[in-house]
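The pair is quoted verbatim underneath.

:::
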Amino acid sequence: MGHPHSRSCVHVFIFSANKIVFSGMVDFSSCTFLFRSYLLEEYLIYRFVLTFVFFLFSHLILLLMFLHMVPVRSVWVALIHLLKLVVKVPSRFKHSHMTQILTFVVFFFVG
């Protein structure tokens, strides 16, 4: 189960209409993934997976930029490719995905 003092967990919360619709926790020490959904909707897990992938992607980019291993231009090219993938998402999912990704862009690159 891991040591009680280990703090290698990431908590993820997804909000929709000011309500928590999904919460998840990823424990990197034991590679476990726990989640709890508050609204059972068709696109919920899909949205969570996309958000979590972007979450890891953003942290990796920031780490590499901090270590001066990746030029800034490559970062923007990678982000453009990621957004192109999102555009290919079915239209009924587009709005929620774009809102979520824009929120994470503001959080990771401004915060």
